[in-house]
Amino acid sequence: MGANSSVISINDDAESFSKPGLGDLPESCAALILSHFDPPEICKLAKLNRTFRSASFADFLWELKLPSSYEFLVDKLFGSQGNCLNNVVPNDKREIYALLCRPNSFDGGTKVAWVEKSSGGVCFAISWKGMKITGIDDRRYWSHIPTDESRFQTIAYLQQMWWFEVEGELEFQFPPGIYSVYFRLQLGKATKRNGRRICNVEQVHGWDVKPVKFQLSTSNGQHAISQCYLSGPGSWVNYHVGDFIIENGNALTKIKFSMTQIDCTHTKGGLSVDSAFIFPNGSNERPSKC
Q: Which InterPro entries match (predicted)?
């Protein structure tokens, strides 16, 4: 009897101790684990328990996820404008990351930059208003059309012209990586009638005679040239201009890009110009090259 009682007592004592779980991890260890995940996954894991939630606020963790040039990015976007909540840039790295993941405008609202949550890469959009367009202020050739199909709420529409030329540039402290530049164009002019999208293509002409020439150059000596016939009337198409490589993320790099069709043997028209995009390699928003 005594022996049996002793066994029962020992078993009862063993069962009184709970098994260790994730909640028993030191917060610093949980933060190290989270550092191996991307930001969306970190936010999901923060819901596991109180330890992981506290660890998800660690400054070093979010500094690892921020672009290497995030201080330049913050200064460019908010330094002189105070373009954030309460006109104050937060000190908390997690809040800075969240702030940079929103589309933030600069250069008078003609450009937008944002950090992509999944890749951590910096993306850019440049409105047609932030580019040089031949004859853009002459209403005989160009119309400025409000639309909800553009993030800038307006597009430039070419009715007819002999000389087509659009030039853009951006000087920035790009984080290291490979970047691609695109022009977002559409053959035709889209409108809405009775709630339905209708694209008028009656003025589209001249783009099948000669291709459009796309060019890209950087201040550190990189160049790219390509040609492409514009196609797909009625749909927005991202036309690939070229790629460039950033190795030194601490240096200012100026990029210039353009598209031209200056063969004066024929006119061209019926083209909607929205914007240009710059996407880093690995971005989910980076389209297939046209």
A: F-box-like_dom_sf, F-box_dom, PP2-like
pLDDT at 24: 65
**CB burial class (10 A; 0-12, 13-18, 19+) of residue 206?**
buried
**Residue bearing the bigger pLDDT, 213 or 35:** 213
pLDDT of residue 8: 42
Residue 9 confidence (pLDDT) above 60: no
Tell me, which fold does domain 122-280 have in CATH? Jelly Rolls (2.60.120)
**Structural domain boundaries in the chain:** 2-63, 122-280
71-84 residue pLDDT tens: 999 999 987 544 55
Q: Which of 101, 82, 107, 88 is nearest to 43 (CA)?
A: 101
Name which of 259, 218, 219 is nearest 241 in CA terms: 259
Compute CA distances 188 → 46, 170, 225, whole Å: 48, 28, 26
3-state DSSP: the chain helix, strand, coil percent, rounded to 5?
Answer: 25, 35, 40
Task: List pLDDT tens digits, range 140-151.
Answer: 999 999 999 999
- Residue 262 has which token pair? 């200056």
Pairing of strands 132-133, 236-246: unpaired
**Do 253 and 175 form a contact (C-beta atoms < 8 A)?**
no
The pTM of this model reads 0.84
Is residue 11 within a helix (H) or strand (E), and if so which, with residue range?
helix 2-15
On the question of pLDDT at 6 being above 70, the answer is: no
Closest CA to 230 of 181, 270, 199: 270
Among candidates 112, 116, 57, which has minimal Cα distance to 83? Answer: 112
Quick check: 177 and 158 in contact, CB under 8 A?
A: no
Which amino acid does the sequence have at 196? R
| Cβ(224)–Cβ(216) below 8 Å | yes
Nearest CA-CA partner of 111 in 151, 66, 69: 151
